[in-house]
Write a structure and sequence with these properties.
Number of helices: 15
Shape: rod-shaped
Number of domains: 3
Helix content: over 70%
Strand order of the largest sheet: 1-2-3-4-5
Distance between the termini: 203 Å
Number of strands: 5
Low-confidence stretches: none
């Protein structure tokens, strides 16, 4: 309404001059007409607005309905999401548990395969089945995923290995000697123990090379072991020397130090110690030969001589003693019989003189043997001191970082002591043994001399001297 009034005022202002020329009725009629037009326009506008409002309200209601439906759907989706989340968590836990179990199983199978491979690399059975080493090496890959086929293959190899551990197999096969040349010979496999070989006149043990899967000849064993192996190949014995450590003991044969090499490690002082031993050995042999010749059964001789002297048959006693004149007791008896008619003092002096003359021959070289027994350990002690001095010099120059640098001095120290004691101990025992035999012979001479003197004096006391 206000808008119409203002429109009328505007029109009046704009057409004031036209109104002056026109009548009032015409103007009012036009205004009324315009007013009616404005009213119709207003009505149409209001209706349009009302229609637009109704449409907006309807649209708002539709939107609210959609929002309510979407809210209901969202609630259902949230519930479904929570349910799916729980299912996902459960599935994740089950998958994680299965993955952990699978990983643990893979670790167990890998560890078993690694242990199995270590045993197979030492078993002589692998020389007959070298392909199993490659199969086992493929199982120890930490990134390998074990399948059912792999598990079946591993179990099959395990059962075959257990069956092979109880078999004794003899066959002709190839092996590699110590020079690296391949040769053929007789082989006896005793389960998983080191195999035995015989090639021509050589016997010994075989160890498996893990890299090539071939059998390698071990160093030559000792005489008694070789004899036992030869008898076993020929079927003369059922007991055989073997290595239950899986080849560790056989490998030590390659590191075995020979007797001469051990002596050389003792240095220059081993030479005088060995010379002392040689001298003692020569003296011992001479003494054993000498005392062996002079030793005889004097009891039977003395009984016979005593009986002949008691019967007055001095010539018979001399004749019985004559074959033993080159022995100490025989010389003592001969000296007593030669002075049978002399006074007792003369007989005693003759017997004592003969015993004093024979005693040095019996005790000869005993002092030299005792000196050898005393000098040998002293030389060994000197080598020990020299070796320790060399060791300390090496420590001063190079430190203690590398023990091998000190091995030479320590070897010299220990070997010289060992050799010195090895020479001294038997020499001392031999010296004591020879001294005891010499004393026994001296006592025998003295006993038989006194017995002869007693028999002569009894004969003389009876008036038949």
């Amino acid at each position: 309404m206000n808008r119409l009034i203002w429109m009328g005022i505007v029109l009046a202002c704009l057409s004031s001059e036209a109104w002056a020329e026109r009548s009032f009725d015409q103007v009012a009629s036009e205004i009324e007409s315009e007013y009616q037009d404005a009213r119709k326009e207003q009505q149409l506008t209001l209706e349009a607005i009302q229609s637009r409002r109704q449409a907006l309200r309807q649209k708002l209601a539709d939107l609210e309905a959609k929002i309510r439906a979407a809210s209901d759907t969202l609630s259902e989706d949230q519930e479904r999401l929570e349910k799916l989340s729980k299912e996902r968590d459960q599935i994740t836990r089950r998958v994680s548990q299965r993955l952990a179990d699978n990983k643990e199983l893979s670790i167990l199978l890998t560890d078993h395969a690694r242990t199995f491979l270590a045993l197979a690399e030492r078993s002589s059975y692998s020389a007959q089945r070298p392909e199993r080493l490659e199969t086992l090496r493929s199982f120890v890959d930490p990134h390998r995923v074990f399948r059912l086929e792999d598990l079946e293959s591993l179990l099959t190899l395990s059962f075959e290995d257990m069956a092979a551990s109880r078999d004794k197999i003899a066959y002709t096969g190839k092996m590699v000697d110590r020079s690296g040349n391949e040769t053929s010979g007789e082989i006896i496999r005793l389960g998983h123990l080191p195999a035995l070989y015989r090639v021509n006149d050589r016997v010994g043990y075989l160890t498996l090379s893990p890299a090539s899967g071939r059998l390698i000849m071990s160093p030559r064993p000792s005489f008694w072991v070789r004899q036992n192996l030869e008898d076993y190949f020929q079927g003369e014995t059922e007991a055989v020397y073997t290595d239950i450590s899986g080849g560790a003991a056989i490998q030590q044969l390659a590191h075995r130090v020979g007797f001469m090499a051990q002596l050389r490690s003792g240095g220059i002082l081993v030479v005088p110690i060995l010379l002392v031993g040689v001298v003692a050995l020569v003296l011992t042999i001479e003494r054993l030969i000498f005392l062996g010749k002079v030793r005889h059964n004097t009891d039977a001789l003395m009984t016979r001589v005593t009986e002949l002297v008691g019967e007055g048959d001095i010539d018979g006693a001399i004749k019985a003693t004559h074959p033993h004149r080159k022995r100490p007791t025989g010389r003592v008896l001969m000296a007593g019989l030669e002075h049978r008619r002399d006074p007792s003092e003369v007989i005693e002096s003759a017997l004592s003189e003969t015993m004093l003359r024979e005693t040095p021959r019996l005790e000869r070289f005993q002092s030299a043997l005792k000196v050898c027994a005393a000098v040998a350990p002293l030389l060994g002690l000197l080598g020990t001191v020299t070796g320790m001095i060399n060791t300390f010099q090496v420590i001063t120059t190079h430190g203690t970082g590398d023990p091998r640098l000190m091995a030479g001095g320590i070897s010299e120290a220990m070997v010289t002591t060992q050799v010195g004691l090895a020479v001294a101990i038997p020499v001392m025992i031999v010296a004591a043994f020879l001294g005891r035999r010499a004393r026994n012979l001296s006592h025998d001479m003295e006993e038989k001399g006194l017995a002869l003197m007693g028999a002569l004096l009894r004969r003389r006391t009876n008036g038949n001297g």
